[in-house]
Write a structure and sequence with these properties.
Blueprint: H1 2-15, H2 17-36, H3 53-60, H4 62-65, E1 70-77, H5 85-99, E2 104-110, E3 118-123, E4 126-131, H6 141-154, E5 167-174, H7 187-202, E6 207-213, H8 214-225, H9 227-247, H10 250-273, H11 285-309, H12 314-341, H13 349-377, H14 389-402, H15 408-429, H16 449-460, E7 467-473, H17 482-496, E8 501-505, H18 507-517, H19 532-539, E9 555-562, H20 567-584, E10 590-595, H21 596-631, H22 634-657, H23 667-693, H24 698-725, H25 733-764
Main location: membrane
Organism: Shewanella vesiculosa
Membrane topology: Multi-pass membrane protein
Length: 768
């Protein structure tokens, strides 16, 4: 039945091939224009699991306490002392410039020049205080001395002033939407503005500007992503050379490359049509689409070329190749597509967009490389010169040697070796951690400007950039009750003594300091007052702009400043928060995770961890079902899947050896590797299964499958691996990591298809 449908489809297509090709041309022009309208899109909200419980807490209180999408600008005086007129002029300029950049929440801009930056001191009559930089500030020796005294009274050293007095901080929260236009903030344009308006204007030999925050990181990643175009061109050049060496024909070199590029144009154009932008992480997908297209294109030109050499006309050879490859190629590409769609199960916008982007690209390859390519080839005359008989014999000798893997004697050795390799790999893969394993921004190299800025701020300020805030929800006016603040104080003390936590801050700890101030600064009085009247007096000195309480005192965050955001650190802190919260939570008081940059990371890590197993089950389930439908054989399906599973495990083991954590950028690689790797096994086993069903012995069936498809399988494995190996030199660390993992998976999946698959076949079809 299936064969009849394929034959009918082929007859209809080739009878109307001219009109089909013209239709492809018009669609390509339309989608090519749409692709030219595609824009980069790196919205903060796409990078977080919005439906996670942590993020529900985050969004609920974002208006009162700000979110994780913040900017920190450290202004450094390279002379080693900030108390000079030139530095204070630069600091004020940076504060003012940041204040007026569209997208900045102006009420949340904080520095020495913010009116909310105040000092308080104990005097004979009680308290005295005011802005750290007074209204009549003069930028001279006397004025700077006053400011220095106020800084020390304000207790902001380590927060707004560097511990060594070499730098000062300007921080701000960002809005999701531009209040002037109502449109979403263009994160990448904002990052460029920071670079031009701050670093470009105010950095000198004496003044250095250090900028960190999600928006700046996204901008640096987007800047590094521009290099992807160069890698794409290099990959096209390498692939063109490899295809020519394989086909010995300029026509058969140009056509599969052209059809693969058409698939890329279609994919990019369709993204615009459905209203998507191109995220820096998804910018690698067009290369994968091109690579997969070339892989299937090579199978097609190999099949056509073999038939032409056997004496068929180009048109007849193209039609025959189309009939033989439509089902296995279609099943392989459907497996890829469904495999990528399984990434939709991960509740993170950036991964879902990558899933849709990759699925669209692979789906259109069915049209461009399995339908368009043979139709176009049919119009060309191909060389009929046979290969050198001696060379053909040498190649056949290689296939004859490889066919030994399909004999029981060699199969036992292969399968035992595979089992040992899998056991070692599984043990190593079990050590894989969820999250980032390096300091700084994991998407960028350690020596990047952004990460160097991060390390500078971490080194010179007590508050790190790795902040997690635990939201304490209570009843209105709860902060006036000793029982409430004492529990917050107890929680803060337990978290302050947790490994990985550098320092903490909360309304309770500030209220204790204020209470001591009301008692002549005596350290003995640095406690929480037990009477409501005294507590109101202490808490009343803390404004809502401090971020320590909301307007009716029913929500009070506890800030945890962590030493870093490595996976192990976050896991330890989150586990401790959950354990302590379980002890202290009551009907009227709830400690809820989480907000702040590390709160977002914790939610993301948990989302990735929860999605890992379901994603793999969906990927392998989809491949299993499609192979079962295609081969109608459980044994054949298992023979394809086992090598894939072994390679996936070994890839995870490689991640642990290279200190690559399972994160948003690396999680899709496993699905991509499985989806692309299944192609090799399907092409080889589809040829074998036809011959096995006709009674041919396993070794002979495998030998003939190698003669027909072996060169194309090995060639595509090597070509794909060489193409992605160029990513090792990328400015983006996550691209380099993906390049390492994909190179490994392309090569080892190919080896699995030509070594492990025939060994399994020898065991499954022993009677043959």
């Amino acid at each position: 039945m299936l064969e009849k449908l394929v034959n009918g489809f082929e007859s209809h297509l080739f009878r109307n091939r001219k009109w089909v090709i013209i239709s492809f041309i018009f669609i390509t022009i339309f989608l090519g224009y749409q692709a030219s309208q595609l824009k980069m899109d790196a919205a903060f909200s796409k990078n977080i699991p919005l439906n996670h419980s942590y993020m529900q807490t985050y969004t609920k209180h974002q208006k009162d306490f700000g979110g994780a999408n913040s900017i920190m600008v450290a202004v450094e005086d390279t002379s080693g002392n900030i108390f000079n007129p030139e530095f204070f002029d630069a600091l004020k300029n940076v504060h003012d410039q940041l204040f007026f950049i569209p997208g900045v929440e102006r009420s949340q801009v904080k520095s020495l020049f913010s009116p909310s930056t105040r000092f308080t001191e104990v005097v004979e009559d009680g308290f005295a205080g005011g802005p750290v930089i007074p209204a009549d500030f003069s930028n001279d020796e006397y004025g700077l001395k006053v400011v220095r005294d106020n800084i020390e009274k304000a207790g902001i050293v380590g927060r707004l002033i560097g511990n060594d007095y070499t730098s000062a901080m300007v921080s701000a929260q960002l809005m999701e939407f531009d209040p002037q236009t109502g449109e979403a903030i263009d994160t990448i344009a904002f990052a460029n503005q920071l670079e031009q308006e701050l670093r470009g204007k105010f950095e000198t030999d004496k003044i250095k500007i250090h900028i960190i925050g999600f928006a700046k990181m996204a901008g640096d990643v987007a800047e590094g992503a521009k290099g992807v175009l160069l890698f794409f061109l290099i990959a096209i050049a390498i692939t063109a050379v490899m295809v020519y060496l394989f086909s010995k024909s300029i026509v058969l070199t140009i056509l599969p490359l052209m059809c693969s590029l058409v698939a890329v144009f279609w994919q990019l154009g369709l993204l615009t049509v459905i209203g998507f932008g191109l995220d820096p992480m998804s910018i690698l997908v067009p290369f994968l689409v091109f690579a997969i297209g070339v892989s299937h294109g090579v199978q097609m030109i190999n099949a056509v070329r073999r038939r032409v050499l056997d004496g068929q006309t180009t048109k007849a050879a193209s039609a025959s190749a189309f009939r033989s490859l439509l089902v296995p190629g279609g099943v392989a590409l459907l497996s890829d597509t469904v495999g990528f769609l399984t990434l939709l199960s991960i509740d993170i916008g950036i991964i879902r967009e990558l899933a849709i982007s990759a699925s669209l690209g692979v789906a259109v390859i069915i049209l461009t490389n399995l339908i368009l390519l043979p139709l176009v080839i049919s119009y060309f005359e191909l060389p009929t010169k046979q290969d050198n008989p001696q060379k053909r014999q040498q190649i056949e000798n290689i296939w004859r040697w490889l066919s030994k893997f399909a004999t029981p004697k060699y199969a036992v050795v292969v399968l035992v070796s595979t089992a040992i390799l899998y056991a070692v790999g599984f043990q190593q893969a079990s050590k894989m951690q969820i999250g980032d394993l390096q300091g700084g921004a994991p998407a960028l190299h350690q020596d990047s400007r952004y990460n160097q800025d991060t390390f500078f701020i971490t080194k010179h300020f007590s508050i790190t950039t790795d902040v997690m805030s635990v939201i304490v929800e209570a009843t209105p006016e709860a902060c006036t009750y000793h029982s409430v603040l004492s529990q917050i104080d107890q929680f803060e003390w337990m978290m302050a003594n947790t490994p990985g936590v550098e320092s903490t801050a909360s309304l309770a700890s500030i209220a204790k300091k204020v209470n001591a101030g009301f008692n002549e600064g005596n350290p003995k009085w640095e406690i929480l007052p037990r009477t409501t009247a005294s507590l109101v007096q202490a808490v009343g000195q803390v404004p809502t702009t401090s971020g320590l309480l909301n307007s009716n005192c029913s929500v009070m965050p506890v800030y945890l400043f962590l030493k870093d955001h490595k996976a192990e650190t976050i896991e330890v802190v989150v586990d401790k928060v959950k354990a302590v919260a379980a002890e202290l939570n009551s009907d009227t008081l709830q400690f809820k995770l989480a907000s702040g940059p590390v709160g977002v990371m914790a939610a993301t890590n948990e989302a990735v961890s929860e999605a890992q197993l379901p994603m793999m089950l969906y990927v392998y389930g989809a491949v299993f079902v499609l192979c079962l439908i295609s081969f109608k054989s459980l044994k054949a399906t298992i023979a394809v899947i086992i090598p894939l599973y072994v390679v996936s495990t070994l890839a995870q083991a490689l991640m642990t050896l290279l200190d690559i954590g399972l994160a948003v950028s690396t999680l899709p690689v496993i699905a991509l590797g499985v989806g692309i790797g299944v192609d090799y096994g399907i092409y080889i086993l589809s040829t074998m299964s036809n011959k096995l069903s006709n009674g041919m012995p396993v070794q002979q069936a495998y030998f003939e499958a190698l003669v027909e498809r072996g060169s194309a399988v090995i060639f595509t494995g090597l070509t794909l691996a060489i193409g992605v190996s160029t990513w090792f030199f990328s400015d983006l660390k996550f691209q380099m990591d993906m390049g390492i993992l994909l190179t490994f998976m392309f090569l080892v999946n190919m080896l699995g298809a030509i070594i492990i698959l025939p060994a399994l076949s020898a065991m499954f079809w022993r009677k043959k």
